[in-house]
């Protein structure tokens, strides 16, 4: 998952026009130190608040966000170019995330009883307790949801948070800390740090910071993991993926092709769990490619504030350049363009929906993540080859498989190397389900019970 380079200014730059709307001054070392001190001091008492009190503040925050969803959607569209409809859907998904943890945190973190007699005790159990100040390093593609799925879990567990957001979504980042404060969370519970990537190491090495979570690029993940490893601090990493979308002969091919379009171009193609590699059984290959290409070509690209537009611009100029490089290199090596395939004229960082076929293993696009509305289609002779192609990537985040054969479903569930497998549907995230990957897609989990427990100390209690 690409992120802005360390030299990227902290600014709102409209990706539909390239216009710099508002710039921000990075926090000084002294200001960052003060924020960390505030967080550490707040944790000392916040950790002892009741689940009921935290839930009251979180429900109030959810109510505020729900009332302000249109305003927040416009802000996200301005900062990173997603359509207004998808931006509002993201805001409302955050409302759901807040309410999920407000309602379920106490149950998810309940004491785990053990067989006391077996271990020679009168009582024995394990208790989840918060660990302290957690730094979240978040990306721009889902600027509110990525941060909320951390904040909602961390705050309900009794931790406090520091947010280092992507430099191109500063206003969304500031909104989150503001709405949490207006919801009632005490000062210092959740703070946004307007800092560049170069300032992250200093925060990670501060002894008052207990752990970190990062969603972003593989290089960024390596850096955070290395620093936290040196400091012996827990991390959760979600580093993107190159998710497969497999279609077998028993599938409803028309439905698969329709969903495939949304699965590829959601969020203007900039989603870590977007389907990126379409692996189609040879018996239905021509049928699927024809339907899929026609639907991709029919999408409207343009101003993301226009309700008639399906796809807005890519979020950054450098991101579009990376997409172009991968597509151009593949075509030069023999890939066939079925639709799209070149930047659009005019201002803004637009790239059209693109379908490529005849991909070979020597092309970079075979294994690398394309963070834009570009679909790579592969032909598979059978289920064995489909699974082999699906796993032929260093990533393992999400996956999709379309089949109505129970035996094939079992093969895909067991055989695909990924943190998530969706059968006859599109990979997405739900507060109720664990979210995360394997291999170079990272480690650890967000959401559900697994997510709220990541930054807790599981303390064993034995009473004679």
UniProtKB/TrEMBL annotation:
Pfam short name (any one): Aldedh
Signal peptide region: none
Keyword NADP: yes
Keywords linked to the UniProt accession: NADP, Oxidoreductase
InterPro entries in alphabetical order: Ald_DH/histidinol_DH (IPR016161), Ald_DH_C (IPR016163), Ald_DH_CS_CYS (IPR016160), Ald_DH_N (IPR016162), Aldehyde_DH_dom (IPR015590), ALDH_GabD1-like (IPR044148), GABD/Sad-like (IPR047110)
CDD domains from the UniProt entry: ALDH_SSADH1_GabD1
Gene3D superfamilies documented for this protein: Aldehyde Dehydrogenase, Chain A, domain 1, Aldehyde Dehydrogenase, Chain A, domain 2
Residues of the Aldehyde dehydrogenase domain: 7-461
Regions crossing the membrane: none
Family matches, as SUPFAM superfamilies: ALDH-like
Family recorded in the similarity comment: Belongs to the aldehyde dehydrogenase family.
Name of the protein this chain belongs to: NADP-dependent succinic semialdehyde dehydrogenase
Organism: Mycolicibacter acidiphilus
């Amino acid at each position: 998952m690409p992120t802005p380079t360390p030299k990227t200014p902290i600014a709102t730059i409209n990706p539909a026009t390239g216009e710099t709307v508002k710039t921000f001054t990075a926090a000084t070392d002294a200001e960052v130190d003060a924020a960390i001190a505030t967080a550490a001091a707040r944790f000392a008492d916040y950790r002892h608040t009741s689940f009921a009190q935290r839930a009251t503040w979180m429900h109030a925050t959810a109510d505020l966000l729900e009332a302000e969803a249109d305003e927040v959607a416009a802000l996200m569209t301005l900062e990173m170019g997603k359509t207004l409809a998808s931006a509002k859907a993201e805001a409302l998904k955050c409302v759901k995330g807040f309410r999920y943890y407000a309602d379920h945190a106490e149950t998810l973190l309940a004491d785990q009883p053990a067989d006391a007699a077996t271990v020679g005790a009168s009582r024995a159990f394990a208790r989840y307790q918060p660990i302290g100040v957690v730094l979240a390093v978040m990306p721009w593609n889902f600027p509110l949801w990525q941060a909320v799925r951390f904040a909602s879990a961390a705050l309900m567990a009794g931790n406090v948070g520091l947010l280092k957001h992507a430099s191109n979504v500063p206003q969304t980042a500031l909104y989150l800390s503001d709405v949490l404060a207006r919801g009632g969370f005490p000062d210092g519970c959740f703070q946004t740090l307007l800092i560049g990537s170069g300032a992250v190491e200093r925060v990670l090495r501060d002894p008052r910071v207990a752990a970190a979570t990062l969603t972003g690029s593989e290089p960024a993940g390596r850096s955070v993991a290395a620093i936290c490893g040196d400091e012996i601090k827990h991390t959760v990493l979600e580093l993107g993926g190159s998710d497969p979308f497999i279609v077998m002969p028993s599938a409803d091919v028309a439905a698969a092709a329709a969903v495939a379009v949304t699965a590829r171009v959601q969020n203007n193609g900039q989603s870590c769990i977007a389907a990126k590699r379409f692996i189609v059984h040879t018996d239905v290959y021509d049928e699927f490619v024809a339907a899929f290409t026609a639907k991709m070509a029919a999408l409207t690209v343009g101003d993301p504030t226009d309700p008639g537009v399906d796809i807005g611009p890519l979020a950054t100029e450098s991101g579009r350049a990376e997409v172009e490089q991968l597509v151009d290199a593949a075509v030069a090596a023999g890939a066939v363009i079925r639709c799209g395939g070149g930047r659009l004229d005019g201002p803004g960082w637009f790239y059209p929906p693109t379908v490529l076929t005849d991909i070979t293993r020597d092309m970079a696009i075979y294994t690398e993540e394309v963070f834009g509305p570009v679909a790579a289609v592969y032909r598979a002779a059978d289920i064995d080859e489909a699974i082999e192609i699906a796993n032929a990537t260093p990533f393992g985040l999400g996956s999709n498989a379309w089949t109505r054969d129970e035996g094939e479903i079992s093969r895909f569930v067991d055989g695909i190397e990924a943190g998530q497998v969706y059968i006859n549907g599109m990979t997405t995230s739900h507060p109720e389900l664990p979210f995360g990957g394997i291999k170079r897609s990272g480690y650890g989990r967000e959401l559900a019970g697994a997510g709220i427990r990541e930054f807790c100390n599981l303390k064993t209690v034995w009473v004679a």
